[in-house]
Amino acid sequence: MTHITTLHNPQEAHQTLQRLWGWLKPRLLQGQRITLSVEEERRNLPQNALLHATLQDIAARREWAGRKWETEVWKRLLVAAWMRANGDQVLVVPALDGHGVDVVFQRTSRLSKAQMAELIDFIQAWDAQA
Predict the structure, then answer these.
(1) pLDDT tens digits, one per residue of 51-109
(2) Long-range CB contact pairs, 78-84, < 8 A, 24+
(3) Which partner from 8, 21, 73, 79 sits 20 to 30 angstroms from 122, CA to CA?
(4) How many CB atoms neighbour CB 41 within 10 A?
(5) How far apart are CA 64 and CA 24, in angstroms?
(6) Can you give the pLDDT at residue 104?
(7) H/E/C letters for each residue in the chain?
């Protein structure tokens, strides 16, 4: 059984979990193993559009390290800065071809709605202060 449900309020969540328990309990008693996954709602299209519009605006107006950068470079720089500001680790690893290093950072497509809102706020605050 695979079922994806978006929960909107505590009452709906409680009812859904009760129904789920009715389905789960007999299977668990039979010794079956069940994988249950619960996650926050992912970022949405309007947030993604706002993020990219903000990044395009920054790319058009700003320089960093003495030069202009494409939107994708600004995205990587700002996501990495946001991660560090939140205490998350950005991975810097030797390049696979042995020339230099590569930075491995959080993909915005995997952010929750709340995380995306925080990222956008971080970028807008950085832009206002820089």
Answers:
(1) 999 999 999 999 999 999 999 999 999 999 999 999 998 889 999 999 999 888 888 99
(2) 78/119, 78/122, 78/123, 78/126, 79/105, 79/106, 79/108, 79/119, 80/105, 81/122, 81/126, 82/118, 82/119, 82/122, 82/123
(3) 8
(4) 11
(5) 54
(6) 85
(7) CCCCCCCCCHHHHHHHHHHHHHHHHHHHHCCCCCCCCCCCCECCHHHHHHHHHHHHHHHHHCCECCECCCHHHHHHHHHHHHHHHCCCCCEEEECCCCCCEEEECCCHHHCEHHHHHHHHHHHHHHHHHC
Q: Is residue 90 within 8 Å of residue 76, measured between CB atoms?
A: no
Q: At what angle do helices 113-129 and 71-85 cross, to 10 degrees?
A: 100
Question: Is the pLDDT score of 15 beyond 90?
Answer: yes
